[in-house]
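TL;DR need structure tokens for one chain.
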Amino acid sequence: MNCLVCRKPFAVPWSPATLLKRDWACPDCDKMLTPLNEGCPRCGHPTVDGATCGDCVRWLALGLDLTVHSLYAYDEAGANWLHRYKFGGDVVLARQLRDVLRATRERGAVYVPIPLSEERLRSRRFNQAELLARMIGPTEQVLVKAEVSSQRQLGKEERRHRTNPFAVQQLPRCGKIVLVDDVYTTGTTLHQAALTLRRAGAEQVSAVCLFRTLNKSKMRPI
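>> reply
TL;DR here they are.
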């Protein structure tokens, strides 16, 4: 068996479940990403005693309360993984996280990926958030996004004060919407999307995000 991530061969312990699973990561690659288990109750950022982090305190002061289930820390390993997946187009990597993503599924929810603008989608050829959302549960294309300049070189305050680029095409019939994105830096993207949905009449909005940037780390911007 070859590892899904590093492509190197390794032995898979046999069990009845082995016959049903085709995508395997070797033990080293499987432990490469750092799970976020305890931290800010609204975004998962590591905090002392599970206190609300500074970013979420600022969002709450603006009247915006969004719970984001962040799965992994955006550390060096996370940055390398995401760069291969998002910019290298190595979409098969997402299969490594299928079980982790599926474990976040909520009954009765529809999963709404953060959209790319038409221009960005043409250049990248796939929406990385949409592939992640499909692994969790039923998805709908609810939001559209206008073309905006890349956030990769923007500072935190510039990101927070950017113009809201989202609009709603049509709300789903279910009352529970879960946004899906690949990385949470300041939370601007998810909070603006959630605000747009609520203004359009959405009753329950939460989010799942693959990576959460650590405030003190100096990782490659995404």
